[in-house]
Design a protein that fits this description.
Length: about 110
């Protein structure tokens, strides 16, 4: 399984960005896709994830600002990030979990700064 992430960049506080990730390879119908982030000097943390059935889970600090969605037919997951704050600055990683396996995409930098 390979994950290819896109999006990210530099945005001012209060702005928006959209991250997208496409999965390819041997992908089972039941899986969870999500986004994690890692800020300098901090551990990687879950931002949001979504099951193939559409159940979502968000980290508390992004609730109401970020929206995760997926397209099962295309094996893609997206993260719409609104009202961005400087503390959202991090490298964001796409993730896919199926059975006992966890797969990671390359990180994409999100920087929120004026």
């Amino acid at each position: 399984v390979q994950l290819q992430a896109s999006g990210g960049g530099l945005v001012q506080p209060g702005g928006s960005l959209r991250l997208s990730c496409a999965a390819s390879g041997s992908i089972s119908s039941g899986n969870t896709m999500g986004w994690y982030r890692q800020a300098p000097g901090k551990q990687r943390e879950l931002v949001a994830d979504i099951t193939s059935g559409g159940n979502t889970n968000y980290e508390d600090s992004v609730k109401g600002r970020f929206t995760i969605s997926r397209d099962n037919a295309r094996n893609t997951v997206s993260l719409q990030m609104n009202s961005l704050k400087p503390e959202d600055t991090a490298v964001y990683y796409c993730n896919l979990e199926q059975t006992i396996w966890s797969y990671w995409g390359q990180g994409t930098q999100v920087t929120v700064s004026s």
